From TrEMBL:
GO terms for biological process: cellular response to hypoxia. It comes from Vreelandella sedimenti. Residues 107-210 form the Fe2OG dioxygenase domain. It comes from the Bacteria. This is 2OG-Fe(II) oxygenase. SMART domains: P4Hc (SM00702). Pfam families: 2OG-FeII_Oxy_3. The keyword Metal-binding applies.
Amino acid sequence: MTPSVATSSPALQPATQVALVDALVEQGWYVGRGVIDLGLCDALNNELLHRAAYNGLDEAGIGRGQQHLLRKDIRGDAIHWLDRESAAQRRYLDAMSELQQALNHALFLGLFEYEAHFAHYPPGAFYQRHLDSFRGRANRVISTVSYLTPDWPSDGGGEMVIYHPDAPNQEVARVVPEAGTFACFLSETIPHEVLPTRCPRTSIAGWFRRNASLGGVLDPAR
């Protein structure tokens, strides 16, 4: 049974929006600790771990459509796309919808959709350095990562490394995957990677998307 989710506190701290927008404008990325409500993180984490225990996740790949490949040498997580099936998912996605409106109001980005999936990294898994947008296609505009694992140990590994957009070998931030931390960055320009984890690592990866088309056909979300 999915645990109930208290709603007395906001899912996303309101003060985050101003700091987040300023950081995106100034440097193209934002990281904040204690941004996501810990009760919500706990409910989402329990849901993800339940799926992992009962084979309710899919191996993640790279590319999509006919170009979709399973490459454990590049990416080792397993995923499940959020579909609003639980109260925790609905609360999280509603918070992202509010953030989408704030981003459009402040930055005139024309974001029209948000897609997200659970991500479970077993010990030893990683994700090599990459960009989130598809080459030549600006459909994914802003990437988000919400971390769910409580009490992350100092030697747990699994950090997300963010690199400078104009100097891809220059590390500018290293994000510890502890519950409540929220990161976002420009999908087309900010290289990043997930270092090998020594503990099971849980998170939600998401993307705010702008409408794109090819040959008159709308670009699908996935």
